[in-house]
TrEMBL record:
Protein's UniProt keywords contain Membrane: yes
Membrane topology, record value: Multi-pass membrane protein
Gene Ontology annotations for the cellular component aspect, listed alphabetically: endoplasmic reticulum membrane
Keywords for this protein: Endoplasmic reticulum, Membrane, Transmembrane, Transmembrane helix
Subcellular location: Endoplasmic reticulum membrane
PANTHER family with a match to the protein in the record: ER MEMBRANE PROTEIN COMPLEX SUBUNIT 4
Native organism: Wickerhamomyces mucosus
Family to which the UniProt record says this protein belongs: Belongs to the EMC4 family.
Spans through the membrane: 87-108, 128-145
Protein name: ER membrane protein complex subunit 4
Length: 174
């Protein structure tokens, strides 16, 4: 072996570094005791579980608010695709309905790994918000179908079920 390897790995020749100075123009680090580092009143053993619960709740809120973040883009794309009966607007509207309904059906698989005993109530709230935002996405699809004229909401759409008007007066020509 070479000398430099022996010098760096030999425990007798290694000199411990007690103090490393900060680089120029950087403040000196403030050493904090363990009590200052754990300023929360949470015991040392319970802190990681508390942090994991908070991280899981944060992730649940991210999942719950994701459809709301996509809603403006969905509205814009629905508006820009036009109101004609063509393949692109119809397929986009169909996928909007399918994705929203599948998301509502599979809501438990979305939040499955995030539920703990401590945050169960908060996860139920995030699920509720998630469902509301998916229903808002469905209303965008209903609006799109209405602009395409596929929802029968006018009197002319129901003419087949109306009876014809019978006139009592007779026209007499002299």
């Amino acid at each position: 072996m070479s000398d430099w390897f022996n010098n760096l790995t030999d425990p007798l020749t290694i000199q411990p570094v007690n103090k490393i100075e900060s680089p120029n123009a950087f403040p000196k680090p403030l050493l904090k005791s363990n009590k200052q580092l754990n300023s929360n009143n949470i015991p040392q053993q319970q802190q990681p579980h508390f942090q994991i619960d908070q991280l899981k709740l944060s992730k649940a809120w991210d999942i719950a608010l994701a459809p709301g973040k996509q809603l403006p883009m969905t509205l814009f794309m629905s508006y820009m695709s036009g109101s004609s009966l063509q393949l692109i607007p119809l397929s986009m509207t169909f996928m909007l309905f399918v994705n929203s309904i599948n998301s509502i059906i599979n809501i438990n698989s979305q939040f499955n790994g995030l539920i703990t005993d401590k945050n169960k109530d908060n996860i139920i709230l995030t699920k509720f918000i998630y469902i509301i935002l998916q229903i808002l996405t469905l209303t965008v699809g209903i609006w799109k179908l209405n602009t395409m004229g596929l929802i029968p909401n006018q009197r002319g759409d129901w003419l087949a079920w109306e009876s014809s008007t019978k006139y009592i007066e007779k026209l007499i020509i002299i």
